[in-house]
Design goal:
- The complex is a heterodimer of chains A (about 325) and B (about 575).
- Chain A has 14 helices and two strands.
- Chain A is mainly alpha-helical and about 325 residues long.
- Chain A has a two-stranded antiparallel sheet with strand order 1-2.
- The radius of gyration of chain A is 25 Å and the shape is globular.
- Chain B has about 575 residues and is an alpha+beta fold.
- Helices cover about 30% and strands about 20% of the residues of chain B.
- Classes of the chains: A mainly alpha (about 325), B alpha+beta (about 575).
- The interface between A and B is large, with 47 and 53 residues.
């Protein structure tokens, strides 16, 4: 296992280098820079613009900016964000933490919904229950999650108006958060998290449910399952031990993607619910061309993707005896 | 020992006695807080997340340092007559050296939120840090004049002296910066220079370490969610209402970060915030509907004043690569014709939903006194016949098969016009202009392009700049001297129509405007300065270097919880609709 990991580390070096080059230069391809809007400000003089671009290092050639950035990164310094004038990690970290809560909760719900529903669909294939679930899932599959979120918000607003209940529709905390007790704070955040997490889980679960159902069906038709059944193995054991374990292999292979996904936020869901996660920050950074913030964050997710893939491979070896990592 | 104590005591009593608070004029509010209501929270919003607590690196107008420090500055502008009155200063300054030296006595008894007195050292240190180019402060420019620094000197603990390299109309504005604590920043700056300053007061700093000279202290901040400001009791010691009560009345002000103007409107309609910036007719209609249906109890005042912005079309005079177009754009008859083509009324009606103001000059129509001073300046309003005859004079007498004007050699009268894609108002303005131009036979190829590309084109320098015409807007500027230092004089980077490599003027009017700009900027007398501004407007009107189009209007709405807004005649886009110091919750 250790040689496997070492090999992985060595392999990842050129990957990361190439990725960093791509990230940096693709961002640079966009016209203009962080200071472009300032040039339209009648109150900022050209001298001031020159000083700012010197302070930001924007007056240097792109390749030089890249090598400086790269060099600093080896020392664990991802550069300063232009907007915040702060190290990228300091800016990104609180946002990652916020996103992490939302993503973890929704992932948990996601598996809690997708696995039983998928297995049910396979075991009771073509029953009324299976068919109705299929209809709902097809419906959800075709729906972008942000649109689903908007519909949910609309219904929550209706509910708020008619019942007078204080159901949060956005943000992560209530106005009086600072005055709450520790337990109150946990409850307050949970209240804000649950709706976006459920919407996210439900809209994503459709896809995974379909995969699990298909995989299960395929495995259930295989010879060894038939043999097991013929030998009189109990139904529960057939489904969970023989079929399910083999059915989820493709899912395990995809778990590596969870690590970067966990920090890269819940996408437009965060925007719609005005959740202070990674996505809104990143969108602003792209809008304002905050070079090092975008580049630094992308590098972090790339590293996590590499690590996640290695973990996936290890997990796969645990689940599937045919795979060896040595 | 006893004697020393006695002297110290006598001095404190003495200084306390001489320290009169600043009394906020009763005329600044339409509704006085006679019921003595105190406490409560003003709930507002911010479209973007706050970036830092550091007043020296903060780059946005709407930032935490500016919010907490509201109610500071040696002088403050009176919204009734735009005049500067002593505020943190004890009295008007002593002016000498032909208007270049200002000796300012500082009001005694003012304290930072941590209890330390505000003295000359704080002003000196603050200005010094802003002026260090390694800090990268946004205020760097305001402490320089024509490339030369303004100097500040401490005379005694409560007196500072400013020396300007030349007379400046903006002197009072420039001196009215916010003092930040010397005992916090001065120490760090002396030890670690600019780098130490940049590392201070980041978003990670504990809010209770933020020391404020102004109306608020920072209560709490949650990234991407909200900032809560709390009343600074020390500020209330020297800010009183007309009946002697400490200000502000409010206990706190919260700013929820919404990220999007539609979300802000929704929060306002739902009663979660107390006021909202009304962008257009659509917003107005939604608020009106909610009020009519009884879902929202609020005040709505449409068309309070024009916005302090401009929208214009500029033509490129530096097109060495295309002599036909260069000659065309440099011809004053052509530009006057283009001004005649601009159907400003249709633009207001169609693009701004009827809620706008026609503009003819670089001065925003909200600066009424300056506009009045230039009342005689020529205008070229919508008139297609006049446009046609001007173009005929230029030799465009025939039309081709497509109906476009051609000159004697058969060259079609056409040009490209671009604006920034995504700005729907500008896209509509451009379409209206192109449609009207077609009626007289001018072919306008209108294309919205990427904003950054557009700015690069506009601010490019040289003999052959890469655009024909650009439709864009500017905002920002002051009502003291309403002309932009890099817009009006030749060589400025926003002198958009003519920006050759040497930065020289090409016409006599440009030369005159440049001269008048500096002359007006160096005139302290308000009336004289406005008269000079009127002359600039006259030259600008004749030259028509830029075709000014229309500007949106400013509307005010706030819900019924709030009291203490400005009287209706003081409200405008420049001063806003209220001062939080006098705002109270009913």
């Amino acid at each position: 296992m250790i040689p496997f990991l070492l090999r992985r580390v060595v392999q990842s070096i050129p990957t990361l280098l190439l990725a960093s080059v791509l990230i940096f230069f693709v961002i640079q391809l966009a016209p203009g820079d962080f200071l472009t809007p300032a040039r339209l400000n009648p109150n900022i003089s050209p001298e001031q613009l020159e000083i700012l671009s010197r302070n930001f290092g924007l007056d240097r050639p792109v390749w030089e900016q890249y090598f400086r950035w790269m060099g600093n990164m080896f020392r664990g310094d991802f550069g300063l964000s232009f907007q915040y004038q702060q190290p990228v990690l300091d800016v990104v970290w609180p946002r990652i933490k916020n996103s992490l809560w939302l993503v973890l909760l929704s992932t948990l719900l996601f598996y809690a919904i997708a696995i039983p529903v998928g297995v049910y669909g396979a075991v009771r294939q073509n029953s009324l229950g299976d068919k109705s679930i299929n209809v709902v899932l097809y419906f959800l599959l075709g729906f972008p999650s942000f649109f689903l979120a908007l519909i949910v918000i609309y219904f929550i607003l209706l509910a708020r108006d008619s019942t007078g209940l204080d159901i949060p529709i956005g943000g992560m905390t209530s106005n009086n958060y600072e005055q709450l007790s520790t337990l109150g704070r946990v409850w307050d955040i949970a209240k804000h998290l649950i709706i976006p997490a459920v919407v996210l889980a439900v809209s994503d679960a459709a896809g995974l449910t379909r995969v699990i159902r298909g995989q299960m069906l395929e495995v259930m038709r295989s010879d060894y399952v038939r043999t097991a059944r013929a030998k009189g193995v109990g139904e529960r054991s057939v489904i969970w031990k023989h079929t399910f374990r083999n059915g989820i292999l493709p899912i395990v292979a995809g778990i590596g993607g969870l690590l970067p996904a966990a920090i890269s936020g819940a996408g437009f869901m965060e925007v719609v619910f005005a959740y202070p996660g990674v996505t809104p920050m990143l969108l602003t950074a792209i809008n304002t061309q905050d070079l090092y913030l975008i580049a630094g964050f992308t590098v972090i997710t790339t590293i996590l993707l590499v690590i996640g893939n290695a973990i996936s491979d290890l997990l796969l070896a645990v689940v599937d005896p045919r795979v060896k990592v040595a | 020992m006893k004697k020393a104590l006695f002297v110290a005591l006598a001095m404190t009593v003495g200084s306390a006695a001489s320290a009169a608070p600043f009394v906020w004029p009763a005329a600044w509010t339409a509704e006085q807080n006679t019921a003595n209501k105190r406490g409560g929270e003003y709930r507002y919003y911010s479209l973007s997340d706050y970036k830092t607590f550091n007043p020296f690196t903060s780059a946005e107008a709407d930032s935490i340092p500016t919010l907490i420090a509201s109610g500071t500055g040696l002088f403050a502008q009176d919204p009734r007559n735009d005049e500067f009155i002593p505020y943190m200063a004890d009295a008007k300054p002593t002016v000498s050296n032909n208007g270049k030296r200002f000796v300012v006595k500082i009001r005694q008894g003012m304290k930072f939120s941590d209890g330390q007195p505000i003295t000359a050292d704080d002003f000196v240190t603050t200005m010094r840090i802003h002026m260090d180019d390694k800090v990268g402060s946004n205020s760097y420019d305001s402490f320089r004049l024509a490339g030369k620094p303004i100097t500040i000197k401490k005379i005694d603990n409560y007196t500072v002296q400013f020396d300007f390299p030349q007379v400046s109309s903006g002197a009072y504005e420039r001196m009215s910066f916010t003092p930040w604590p010397d005992h916090v920043f001065g120490k760090a700056y002396r030890e670690g220079g600019a780098e130490a300053i940049k590392k201070m007061w980041t978003l990670g700093t504990n809010p209770n370490q933020i020391v404020s000279p102004g109306m608020w202290t920072l209560g709490s901040y949650r990234a991407g969610e909200r900032a809560v400001l709390e009343r600074n009791e020390r500020w209330g010691e020297w800010n009183k209402d007309s009946r002697g009560n400490a200000l502000p009345y409010l206990a706190s002000a919260s700013y929820r970060i919404v990220g999007d103007a539609n979300a802000a409107l929704a929060a306002y309609l739902a009663g979660q915030i107390d006021a909202v910036n009304v962008r257009n007719a659509d917003d107005l209609a939604q608020i009106k509907r909610a009020m009519d249906a009884g879902r929202l109890k609020a005040t709505l005042i449409p068309n309070v004043s024009p916005q302090a912005t401009s929208q214009w079309i500029t033509f490129n005079w530096n097109k060495a690569g295309d002599p036909f177009k260069q000659k065309l754009f440099r011809d004053v008859r052509f530009r006057r014709a283009m001004s005649h083509i601009a159907n400003r009324k249709a633009m207001v009606d169609l693009a701004l939903g009827g809620l706008g103001t026609e503009t003819y000059f670089s001065v925003y129509p909200i600066f009424r006194q300056q506009i009045a001073a230039g009342a005689n300046a020529p205008k070229y309003p919508y008139n297609l016949q006049a446009a046609s005859s001007l173009l005929r004079q230029m030799g465009f007498t025939k039309k081709n098969a497509q109906g476009y004007l051609v000159d004697n050699s058969g060259k079609v009268l056409e040009f490209n016009l671009s604006t920034n894609a995504g700005n729907t108002v500008r896209e509509q303005l451009g379409r209206i202009f192109a449609d009207e131009a077609k009626k007289v036979g001018v072919k306008v190829n209108f294309t919205p392009i990427d904003f950054n590309n557009l700015v690069n084109q506009l601010t490019s320098k040289g003999e052959n700049r890469p655009f024909d015409a650009i439709l864009l807007g500017l905002s920002g500027g002051s009502n003291v001297w309403s002309f932009g230092s890099n817009v009006t004089p030749c060589g400025g980077n926003l002198h958009s129509y003519n920006n050759n490599s040497k930065g020289t003027c090409l016409t006599s009017q440009e030369t005159l405007m440049t001269k008048l700009y500096y002359q007006g900027d160096a005139t302290l007398d308000d009336a004289k300065r406005r008269a000079i501004g009127g002359q600039i407007m006259k030259a600008e009107g004749e030259l028509q270097p830029v075709i000014y189009l229309v500007g949106g209007n400013y509307h005010v709405t706030f819900n019924e919880r709030l009291g203490g807004e400005y009287p209706r005649n003081l409200m405008d886009a420049y001063y806003g609709s209220r001062d939080l110091a006098l705002t109270f919750i009913k």
